[in-house]
Hints:
Blueprint: H1 2-9, H2 18-27, H3 33-46, H4 54-60, H5 66-77, H6 87-95, H7 101-119
Helix pairs in contact: 1-3, 2-3, 3-5, 4-5, 5-7, 6-7
Amino acid sequence: MQRREAGRTAGEGRAWAASEVRALAQALGDPDRWVREGAAIALREQGEGAAPALQALRDALRDPDEFVRWRSVQALGRRGAAAAPARADVQRHASDPREVEVVRAASQRALERIDAAMRDGGAAR
Length: 125
């Protein structure tokens, strides 16, 4: 249970150390789907501070669990223009008719946020 809760409580109310972000990025590959989802939620809450986790979040978009994909795409959307390298990955989920609706909808919102941040000079909304 402790591993499952670690992602949800890491860095609450403060900027995170790079080591914490790296640990959460690593947790996205944990065998326990609850750990992976918790890590994605924590990275979502950190937003742009989750920069070291970009590749891990992109990889998590291929997770077999829809909730992990959903939380990961939300985390990418909160990264603003910094998520531009993942834009094509997010677009694939937004337009894939085989993807579950919650992930498609979150992907569309993430694209809107990424695109708006790119137009506005980088910051996420």
